[in-house]
Inverse folding.
């Protein structure tokens, strides 16, 4: 698709899904770019995210965590339905034990002093400041999530593009390559950014999203 505003271009409905600890708010730079190009955009808060009004420590399964996304997708017209590619999760973390210390942790949070170094080392300072206010713990149940197992006949019909982030210190490049090997996407494209290109390189990420259509 060309980057210009050709009226003959097919407009898409993008459903943007955040990673652990974030929320719909993290797409605030990408959202106006896509809408300005004429596309529909939905930004969803998963259970326990900043806008969900759910305590992340009460989320006991990945199904509960992703329920807002499943509900949104189920409500889409049949010609807009698809499946998303989701992914993400020492001393850099704070653990909460909502069921007591004799039970596994119920939520995990990245300590404030490590957020810039791990998530946003190439991102603008004002974006890091916003994130420091809005970033929340995420349900510990995410650590049990597994992708690419079971019957993949339906989801493998959906075109998936994996964008690698070379300077990522949250999910190292070798970990990203491992995920790609285990569940090969339709295409792999690379960005020389930190974990959060929606902050550090929003224009480049916007262009890659358009090219993936």
């Amino acid at each position: 698709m060309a980057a210009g505003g050709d009226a003959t271009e097919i407009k898409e409905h993008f459903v943007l899904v955040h990673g652990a600890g974030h929320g719909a708010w993290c797409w605030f730079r990408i959202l106006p770019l896509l809408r300005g190009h004429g596309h529909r955009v939905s930004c969803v808060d998963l259970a326990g995210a900043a806008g969900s009004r759910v305590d992340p420590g009460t989320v006991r399964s990945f199904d509960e965590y992703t329920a807002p996304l499943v509900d949104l997708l189920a409500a889409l017209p049949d010609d807009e339905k698809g499946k998303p590619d989701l992914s993400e999760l020492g001393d850099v973390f704070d653990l909460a034990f909502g069921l007591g210390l004799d039970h596994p942790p119920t939520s995990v949070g990245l300590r404030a002093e490590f957020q810039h170094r791990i998530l946003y080392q190439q991102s603008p300072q004002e974006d890091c400041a916003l994130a420091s206010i809005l970033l929340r713990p995420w349900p510990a149940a995410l650590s049990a999530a597994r992708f690419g197992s079971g019957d993949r006949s339906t989801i493998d019909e959906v075109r998936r593009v994996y964008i690698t982030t070379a300077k990522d210190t949250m999910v190292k490049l070798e970990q990203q390559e491992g995920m790609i090997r285990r569940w090969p996407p339709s295409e792999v494209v690379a960005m020389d950014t930190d974990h959060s290109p929606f902050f550090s390189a929003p224009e480049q990420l916007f262009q890659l999203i358009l090219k993936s259509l």
